[in-house]
Amino acid sequence: MNNLRTTFRKLMLYPSAMVGVLVIIALVVVAIYTMITIPYSEAITLWRGGEEVWYQNPRFAPPAWINLFSSKKYSESFAVNTKDGGITKQVIPGKDGISTVEMTYEFDFNYDYYPQEMLFYFTSSFKEKQPFVSIELLTPDNRTIRIANYAIGNKFTYRFSQDQKLRTKLRAEEAIPALFSLPDSEEPLKGTYKLILTGTTFEPDSNMDVEFVFHGQVYGLAGTDHARRDLTLPLLWGVPVALAFGLMASIGTSVLTMIIAAIGAWYAGWVDELIQRITEINLVLPFLAILIMIGTFYSRSIWVILGATILLSIFTGAIKGYRAVFIQVKESMYIEAAKAYGASSSRIIFLYLIPRMIPLLIPSLVQAVPAFVFLEASLAVIGLGDPVLPTWGKIIQDANSNGALYKGLYYWVLEPAILLMITGLGFAVLGFALDRIFNPRLRDV
Amino acid sequence: MSVTTHTPSEKLAIRRTSANNTFFRVARYVGVRLLTLFITVVIGIYLTIMIANMGGYVDEIIKNQIRDSVTQSVAASPNAQQMDPEVRKKLIADRIALEEKRRGLDTPIAVRNARYLVNALQLDLGRAINLTSDAGSKQVRLIILERLPATLLLMGTSQLFLFFSSVFIALTLSRSYGSFWDKLVIALSPTSAVPPWFYGIFLILIFAAGLRVLPFGGMVDSPPPPNTFDYAVSVLKHLMLPGLSLVLSSFFLSVYNYRTFFLIYSSEDYVEMAKAKGLPTRDVERTYILRPTLPNIITNFSLLIIGLWTGALFTETVFLWPGLGRTLFQAIGLYDVPIIVGSTIIYAYMLALTVFILDFVYALVDPRVKIGE
């Protein structure tokens, strides 16, 4: 305990190490928060969900905060519904069970770029005769544009951009820019727009509801990808995945390496010889190729890859380094004493040999984390990521395969990349400082 | 008390036995070392073959592919449509058997693995299953030889530049210990935790997507420029970003490691002594610091040379560089076992050979090391 405190005090002398510690604490907090607010099963259903989950979001939309840095404003996305009162709905009963449903929605449009798309999702209940609806748009300069009239079934979707009649009526190549600008103008008209939907139901129990979805040019905190998915989900879930993979691989590898090195050094003879030979064989094996083969042929599950990574990383050069130190420690007086009082081999290995090496273990353990975090991302980037988990590497892969850099969708690559970088550097900086504290030979120079 | 004196012939005999001793010692050492290294390579290659076959799982995939393609080709041929179903079935079965025999799938997996192993050890790399070289050959040797120049160009320029620049800069820094540049290198050395392909993405973003001055990937413009000079310029342009990302990702750590290493050696007493004698800095560096660190520098350099032959899998994939690393990745995707084994065996041989030669090089450059003792 005292030891820990002195280590921490020494660590305080390295400002970079403190930054590293803060980064790691922040990551752990975010990881816990993510796992509580978006449980694993929910995250996976969301991540693998298609249009039915993500229909409210635009495609390829950068995060909304880019408006802060841009003089021209991108339109933000939103969705409103009659069911939660977002769209005001008024039912006026008439004669013979025929009633009128007035639905209106006002919104401000103060942007310099047109929205991607606008949609109405109608739902209605009726027995025989379908309800009827007519849609109108009231522009800031008080023009009333009649959009469309439709008889709606139980479910009906109206897409502004795909309405051929509307395009002809507006005499425009595309409907949405024409709706949001003055006639014969290329500039968006800013101001308050009002949507007026007048529905008619023909039966006493007949009812109708509508959801208006506005796909702007930007969305939320992190933007969206090619499948309209909100990127905050994989960005958040990438934190626990990266931490778990990096820490487990690095702890598993270093602890097992150390135990095996200690066993080899203690028993010497053929055990030691065997461990040496396995290490040499392992050096010949192509590490990445084997991991990729396991990913391609066998399983892409993150746990299988983790296991293979640990197995292949145990017998590396590190085992030789540890062995050299263990052979020295083995000759110390206190081991001699332990032998004299009749301590068993396992007692000596686990209680006397290994604890002596923990100062050497900790820095290398922390320094190994970034390599494993990036390994997971690297595998994901070449398409061998876990098929169900949302991770940072998967975002980069999606972005790359959709030509994000080529199309200028930089946010898509930069967000996961920067998070990966922060995580990697956080551990690297801390490990570096720990190395200088625990290995005094380095500290002097 | 008597003084033993040797006649000249006795002296010669003593010298001869000691020479014989040295010879036998070295010969025995070489023999044992070669044998252990060879066994290591054999086991390593066999394991790779086993994994590349996934214990026969890949065979199932290939058999299904054969079944599919034969059935489809028979179904598509107009002759077969008039055939009796029984005859057609037999035709399909025969053609599947023939195709499986051609690929050697009719022999048991253990036999085939052993055959792979023996062929691979003789550097008879065989034929690829799915991949072909750009010239159209299926010979694994030709495919590897075709991709090798690209990998050697990329890895060679970047790694040699990295090696020499970091040793040189490290020497300079170790002279000015504690200066601003020294501290900067220490502060930046954790950046090497980030792999090269990752820097690659940022470089693509800046230079290809943002500034539009360098290409996104590939090795040469398409179509390739006709004259040699333009061709070289185009290759150079394509080389910049992947090369830079490879250098960038290990530069600072490399400099830091060499610098620390030189500093440890330059605090030895004999260096102080040399300085006290008033020797010029160049001589002190060359004879008293570089000389004793030579074994380590040689080790690093030879590992670097081996690394050239494997290429950089991720970096080549991100930059679409047509090198060995990317070929290996493609081969894995196409279950092309011969190519996977082929690239592994070359690496294994190179590594074993280097380890073997290094033992002798150590004995040459470091008088404290004696072979076989």
What would the keywords be for this entry?
heterodimer, A: 445 residues, alpha+beta, 5-stranded antiparallel beta sheet, 4-stranded antiparallel beta sheet, 17 helices, B: 373 residues, mainly alpha, MetI-like fold, 2 domains, 14 helices, flat
Give the topology:
The complex is a heterodimer of chains A (445) and B (373).
Chain A: H1 2-12, H2 15-37, H3 40-48, H4 51-54, E1 78-81, E2 88-93, E3 99-109, E4 117-125, E5 132-138, E6 144-151, E7 155-159, H5 164-170, H6 175-179, E8 191-201, E9 207-215, H7 232-267, H8 269-284, H9 287-298, H10 302-314, H11 317-330, H12 333-340, H13 345-384, H14 392-401, H15 404-407, H16 410-438, H17 440-443
Antiparallel strand pairs in A: 1-9, 2-3, 3-8, 4-7, 4-9, 5-6, 5-8
Chain B: H1 8-53, H2 57-76, H3 78-81, H4 85-102, H5 109-121, H6 140-175, H7 180-188, H8 196-210, H9 228-266, H10 269-276, H11 281-310, H12 313-318, H13 324-333, H14 337-365
